[in-house]
Amino acid sequence: MRIEQIELRRIELPFVAPFETSGWREEANHSVLVRLFAQGAEGWGEAPVGVGPWYNEETSATAWVMLREILAPLILQVDLDGPEGVEAAFARVRANRMARSGIEFAAWDLFGRLRGQSLTSMLGGTRMSVDVGVSVGVQSSIEALLEVVGAYVAAGYQRVKLKIKPGWDIEPTRAIRERWPDLRLQVDANSIYTLADAAHLAQLDAFNLLLIEQPLAHDDIFDHAKLQPQLRTPICLDESIVSPEHARWALEMGACGVINIKPSRVGGLTAARQIHDMAQAAGVPVWCGGMLETGIGRAANVALASLPNFSLPGDISASERYFKRDIVTNPFRLNPDSTLSVPTGPGSGAEVDMEYLEHVTVEKVIIG
Ligand code: OSB
Ligand code: MG
């Protein structure tokens, strides 16, 4: 099958509150959206890039150029028998995995809609709902943090992830743990520490955390393997795992006890599923991370998280945690048991709100 036409959009969709990590701050979703047309059907994908290259090397501007100049023209030239063919079509492309994932997600959605099959069933999902938590950015004070976390706990979230950085790590974690002794709690450093901080980070062992996410450099596996034996808490890698090969290296080196799988970070759902399978075989649990996606990208994450080895809660919160209004007419809502329901309709299940999408689109191009 040939893709007949591709529509690309850059959007700006404001967050309900700014999101701050150890190294940067996000005020809005600046994703590039991909819409594929074929045989009277369409599929949607989201490349969840930010404004600057602070998480990985990609930005909204680079993904836009990559998709428009390289990836969209390339995919218009290949015959696709299924969504798995997209990865092969991009085999010669280096890095730029978030840009690639926009087309890859859209192809899964497109084939699902053409076949009348849900994304969860295409991927081999085994769950009708997925456990989720909420990722809490750096706050201005411990009092403010306890208020923010309290509101999420009251809303029904049973797992919280705290963003940490030097000067905002041990004490805020202690404060949350003292207030909520049984809350499932984890922290994320977004690559701000070095191996010299091992003894400092070991203080976090006192707080019964599920994991410590990406303490060391964004492209490191080696030093994480040296750090893990110095901590009781499992290290979880995020930024460092950009492909199934990287996952294999980390597993063989003992660099982590848990993997955060973001399908966008690894180029799409095909690679994400491969990492899931490898981790499962190694007895290492995984969970689905997030990039503050709209309802389009979130639907792909929820479907992926329905696979069996996603045994820890994902950073896949309800739409209202991010946006006053989402660009889909069926935004995800939190169930009382801290889960999101997995869509069962054809494709990803996301129904795009074209009127509101037009309103938040800052640039649009049609190719083919
Ligand atoms: O490191 O997991 C991260 C958001 C943007 C970039 C990186 C990260 C995050 C989050 C939020 O932690 C996850 C979400 O709720 O989508
Ligand atoms: Mg992370």
From TrEMBL:
It comes from Oscillochloris trichoides DG-6. GO terms for biological process: menaquinone biosynthetic process. Its EC number is 4.2.1.113. Keywords: Lyase, Magnesium, Metal-binding. The keyword Magnesium applies. Its cofactor is a divalent metal cation. GO terms for molecular function: metal ion binding; O-succinylbenzoate synthase activity; racemase and epimerase activity. Residues 142-234 form the Mandelate racemase/muconate lactonizing enzyme C-terminal domain. This is o-succinylbenzoate synthase. Pfam families: MR_MLE_C, MR_MLE_N. CDD domains: NAAAR. The keyword Metal-binding applies. It comes from the Bacteria.
